[in-house]
């Protein structure tokens, strides 16, 4: 066999191997989703907690409870998904755009250093005034809204599906004067917004001072 033929066969085997690995990955993904769909709610929650780390910082819960009145749009308490939003990569550019008089560069760096780009879990027992939703319940809300959209030309149901909020794990500077959080609000297919918000603690109260809208629909 010539050298060129050997190289050709080598590339063919590499291609076959790559395709085989892709097929295995796809099968694992599909089977994993199928298996999860068969779990009852309790087992699904156990699996979710096995995957993600639970937020245990008291200041994070105190902060979330304090800003709740600002994001609540009715007397109904906002729904909070059990897993947080990951911070968007635009967070660096957002902080860089904040004026020095609002956020000193030293504090900007502290906030950036505190960001961990991963998904966490909120401890529902530490948020007694929230209605914490599981990922499965969030999926059910999305499916319910899809059903509403499909009926848009007909009579709409008397009650629309729930809305919900999601929050990243908040990040604080060392003195706990500044806080950064990402907030996602969903109230339907064309009613959603995601933003990164900077807060400053003034005389013991958190005040929104700057926001960056990632997208809105």
Automatic annotation (TrEMBL):
TM segment ranges: 12-32
Q: Does the keyword Transmembrane apply?
A: yes
Q: Which domain of life is it from?
A: Bacteria
Entry keyword set: Membrane, Transmembrane, Transmembrane helix
Name by which UniProt lists this protein: Uncharacterized protein
């Amino acid at each position: 066999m010539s050298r060129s033929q050997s190289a050709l066969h080598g590339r063919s085997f590499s291609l076959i191997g790559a395709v085989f690995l892709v097929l295995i990955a796809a099968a694992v993904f599909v089977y994993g989703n199928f298996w999860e769909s068969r779990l009852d709610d309790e087992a699904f929650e156990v699996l979710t907690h096995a995957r993600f780390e639970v937020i245990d910082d008291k200041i994070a819960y105190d902060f979330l409870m304090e800003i709740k009145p600002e994001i609540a749009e009715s007397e109904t308490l906002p729904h909070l998904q059990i897993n947080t939003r990951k911070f968007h990569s635009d967070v660096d550019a957002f902080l860089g755009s904040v004026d020095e008089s609002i956020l000193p560069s030293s504090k900007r760096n502290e906030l950036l250093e505190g960001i961990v780009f991963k998904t966490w879990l909120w401890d529902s027992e530490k948020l007694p005034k929230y209605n914490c939703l599981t990922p499965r319940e969030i999926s059910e809300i999305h499916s319910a809204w899809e059903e509403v959209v499909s009926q848009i030309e007909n009579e709409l149901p008397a009650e629309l599906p729930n809305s919900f909020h999601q929050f990243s794990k908040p990040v604080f500077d060392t003195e706990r004067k500044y806080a950064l959080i990402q907030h996602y609000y969903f109230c339907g297919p064309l009613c959603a917004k995601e933003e990164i918000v900077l807060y400053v603690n003034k005389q013991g109260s958190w005040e929104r001072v700057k926001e960056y809208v990632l997208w809105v629909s």
